[in-house]
Amino acid sequence: MAFGSFDESSSGQPMAEINTTPLVDVMLVLLVIFIITAPLFHQAVPIDLPQVSATKLEDKPVVIQLAIDADGNIFWDGAAMARADLDARFAEASARQPELHLRADRGVRYEKVADVMAAAQRAHIVKIAFLTDPAR
What is 63-130's CATH topology? Predict the structure, then answer.
């Protein structure tokens, strides 16, 4: 007896066809389930939200441009300053929560950069950006 056939006269070869009827039945059942459940996903809870009138803040953050040249000299917004004055200037500026943009020369020792970053950290300046030149 061959698979899928009750006819005794056929050869002993199995039937080489795939029965797709069960697959179509399963797909139709899944389609019906999705059609029924899809509207449930779009129901929202009605909430009466409060209305506020807020204006957009146009305050730009205070930015400190700090540069360290190859000799280790420190420049605050383009003006040269001594390292001894740096802690006092950071403490004075920290009340305004500034951003520190730090530019260091390629040849400057890491010790100088780390010293400036430690001074900024002691003054509670938490936003520090390192500026670089893009590759040409």
Answer: Nucleotidyltransferase; domain 5 (3.30.420)
